[in-house]
Automatic annotation (TrEMBL):
Similarity annotation: Belongs to the prephenate/arogenate dehydrogenase family.
GO molecular function per UniProt: NAD+ binding; prephenate dehydrogenase (NAD+) activity; prephenate dehydrogenase (NADP+) activity
EC number: 1.3.1.12
InterPro entries: 6-PGluconate_DH-like_C_sf, NAD(P)-bd_dom_sf, PDH_C, PDH_N, Preph/Arog_dehydrog, Prephen_DH
Catalytically driven reaction(s): prephenate + NAD(+) = 3-(4-hydroxyphenyl)pyruvate + CO2 + NADH
Protein name per Swiss-Prot or TrEMBL: prephenate dehydrogenase
Domain Prephenate/arogenate dehydrogenase: 7-296
GO annotation terms (biological process): tyrosine biosynthetic process
Amino acid sequence: MSEPQFNKITLIGIGLIGSSLARVIQREGLAKHVTIATRSPETLKRAEELQLGHAYTTDSAEAVRDADLVIISVPVGSSGAVARQIAGSLKAGAIVTDVGSTKASVIEQMQPELPDTVHFIPGHPIAGTEYSGPDAGFADLFINRWCILTPLPDTDKAALDKLSAFWEACGSRLDHMEPQHHDLVLAIVSHLPHLIAYNIVGTASDLERVTKSEVIKYSASGFRDFTRLAASDPTMWRDVCLHNKDAILEMLGRFSEDLASLQRSIRWGDGDALYDLFSRTRDVRRGIIDAGQEVDAPDFGRQAAVKEPVKS
Ligand code: NAP
């Protein structure tokens, strides 16, 4: 356990990401005090039952008083509203960050609301599962996963270093990016795959000549992996689509063109084109395994989330 990096950390939103942060903060002793705020009394009660922090409230403004670090882990469409709620209660010099899956839109929503006296440093841990809510979190979620920070042009270097040290203590590897570039990269590596999964599972469930029970019964052959992605939180993904519209539409356009070309190869019986594509894509997977971002195991290296309550 390390020295506490912060006196008080406030977590706003205590779902998969917020509760994973709460667990790792406690395990690593990164704060002397953790206050948890969320919108609904039910979620707050569950966070308290799981002993995820020291104080609990549905009043975000109250929660951030005296906080040195505020981490907002709510669906990206709610980040502006949360910034508005907390703006008047933030301590001068506090670091305010978020974990949202889109960055340009979050900055656009939050920056105008926050006072100049705080350090706003947007971020995005590239770590997650298809589960949501306070029970879904686990302390190891961020280990060896990238966390992308998108500092603003006038971001204070000392605050950036402090936030970077925090994420490193959570197990993350740090990278910096321009917000627009982040959104483009994430559109291809995360947003498009989720949309393809939502679409293919939607198509299968609409089929008339193949029954739903056959789809479920024979799902081991590829379809099952799409259903994992397609089980992701609908609110989160609705917001991602609405808040990274341009980059997602650009990637969908490229995807549709490439799909048409694949269709043509099949129609013309162009085995060489199919073989070349399938070989290239196999190399991409090998590269991901070699980079340590995946293991070569039948379950894709995903272990069941640890759902034990943490001790306060
Ligand atoms: P989640 O499990 O669904 O939890 C969302 C939390 O936000 C809940 O505690 C919810 O509270 C709270 N919330 C929603 N609207 C709110 C509001 N207006 N004010 C205060 N609290 C509010 O979601 P998550 O997976 O942790 O995702 C949180 C953020 O992390 C999202 O921006 C997402 O894009 C990003 N992210 C997700 C993943 C992933 O794989 N899931 C990965 C990286 C980043 P109630 O239950 O009380 O309504």
